[in-house]
Amino acid sequence: MPRPRSLTTGQIAAAALAVADRDGLAGMTMRAVARELGMSTMALYRYVADREELEGHVLELVLGAVDTAPPPGAHWRERLVVLAERMRAAVAGHPRVLPLTVTHRHHAPGVLRWGEAVLAVLTEAGVTGTARAVALRALTAYVIGATQQEHLGPLSGAGTEAIAALTAADFPLMAATARDARGLAVEREFRRGLELLLDGIGGSLGERPSTGAE
């Protein structure tokens, strides 16, 4: 008779997430996670079939608590802003798992729930057909990409300072833009970029662009 299981899926996912946060996704091997749990690699296979299943559990641990109910009665733009900011907040503490939102987008419950909520808002606003598909992919790409940039290359980081110090003779616009950008708060950067994307969606519906401050 097989021994009864003593670990929950949540405990395994938490151990794997700890490894990913520390060593990156490449370091989140079955062996490393088993070591984190204090068991043999073969023992871990009694709980998860393979690395792909383990990644799915990790992603659901991060995204499972995301509230996908947008505020009722709000304009479609504001509802999408709320959904985008909730997704960003969920992954902010674990940016190394962001690639999993792409590789597991077809079957990860957290990603699918968020996508369904976004599509519901777009549909209610009148965005349908291929335009709706493009809008969903654009919003997903923005949230993932902006969050990665925030953690891997923040405007407050050394990269911006290096660009700002470039000579005006060679890169006048890059240098000037970097000087303007280095004081921009990450929350404002994310929100304004999202507003520009939503302006494009709103334009297809005949709406005027937002008047957000630069």
From TrEMBL:
Native species: Actinomadura namibiensis
The keyword Transcription regulation appears for this protein: yes
GO molecular function, one term: transcription cis-regulatory region binding
Assigned keywords, A-Z: DNA-binding, Repressor, Transcription, Transcription regulation
Residues of the DNA-binding region: 29-48
Protein name: AcrR family transcriptional regulator
PANTHER family the UniProt entry points to: HTH-TYPE TRANSCRIPTIONAL REGULATOR RUTR (PTHR30055), TRANSCRIPTIONAL REGULATORY PROTEIN (PTHR30055:SF151)
UniProt feature coiled coil, ranges: none
One GO BP: negative regulation of DNA-templated transcription
